[in-house]
């Protein structure tokens, strides 16, 4: 999660998806000039980053690093946003596991999506953007949350008939948004940014 530091800066953390000790393959500099590099997924709004690491630090996939602001970074020396297509094959194969971990570790935040999701248009609800959620399941979720907000994924499964693995459904949607940047509605990827623009 991002947290505001004492001076009010928003610290944004990311999880390392791939660590390339010898730098990026398309970096044309001689080997001795390359710094370790890799790819990371930002925890709050799932932005993807290409990062260069401090060569004195040994990192593993799954490590958490600070990507923004620059003066808060400890092991990251440079970073820039990238698209899904730009990721290494290693980063692409780790992505699903890292997204699943983020959803699991921030259960309350993602259960609240089910509690707080709103209509987008007269005919389309945010819940309908989730894979496998049609009118019947959507109505089941809406009816149950009116009675009492959901507090866990387990409770969602128990109270809403036919809703299995509500956490996996979210992971699937987040991956879909990461892989296809032409989706009309982005529910999870880049939300932080949009809120920043609209405030």
CATH T-level fold name of the largest domain: DNA polymerase, domain 1
Distance from first to last alpha carbon: 20 Å
Helix percent band:
25-40%
Number of domains: 2
What is the tally of beta strands?
Answer: 6
Strand content: 15-25%
Structural class: alpha+beta
Number of helices: 6
Uncertain residue ranges: 1-7, 194-199
How can the largest sheet be summarized? 6 strands, antiparallel
Q: Encode the helix/strand succession as letters.
A: EEEEEEHHHHHH
| CATH architecture label name of the largest domain | Orthogonal Bundle
Overall mean pLDDT stands at 88
CATH superfamily of the largest domain: AF1531-like domain
Question: Can you describe what's shown?
Answer:
InterPro entries: DUF655, NA-bd_OB-fold. It holds the Pfam family DUF655. It comes from Natrarchaeobius chitinivorans. This is DUF655 domain-containing protein. It is elongated and about 60 Å long. The protein has 199 residues and is α+β, with helices and mostly antiparallel strands. It contains six helices and six strands, in the order E-E-E-E-E-E-H-H-H-H-H-H. The chain is 35% helix and 19% strand. Strands 1, 2, 3, 4, 5 and 6 form a six-stranded antiparallel sheet that branches. The chain has two domains: 12-86, Nucleic acid-binding proteins (OB fold (Dihydrolipoamide Acetyltransferase, E2P), Beta Barrel); 92-184, Orthogonal Bundle (DNA polymerase, domain 1), CATH 1.10.150.280.
């Amino acid at each position: 999660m991002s947290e505001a530091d004492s001076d009010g800066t928003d610290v944004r953390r990311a999880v390392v998806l791939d660590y390339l000790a010898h730098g990026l393959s398309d970096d044309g500099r001689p080997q001795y000039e390359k710094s370790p590099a890799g790819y990371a997924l930002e925890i709050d709004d799932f932005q993807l980053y290409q990062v260069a690491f401090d060569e004195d630090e040994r990192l593993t996939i799954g490590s958490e690093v600070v990507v923004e602001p620059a003066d808060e970074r400890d092991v990251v020396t440079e970073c820039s946003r990238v698209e899904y297509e730009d990721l290494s094959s290693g980063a692409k194969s780790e992505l699903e596991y890292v997204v699943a971990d983020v959803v699991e570790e921030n259960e309350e935040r993602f259960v609240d999506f089910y509690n707080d999701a709103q209509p987008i248009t007269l005919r389309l609800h945010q819940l309908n953007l989730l894979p496998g959620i049609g009118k019947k399941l959507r109505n089941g979720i809406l009816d149950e949350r009116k009675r009492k907000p959901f507090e866990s994924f387990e409770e969602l499964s128990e109270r809403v008939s036919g809703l299995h693995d509500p956490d996996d459904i979210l992971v699937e949607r987040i991956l879909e948004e990461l892989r296809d940047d032409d989706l009309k509605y982005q529910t999870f990827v880049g939300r932080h940014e949009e809120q920043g623009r609209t405030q």
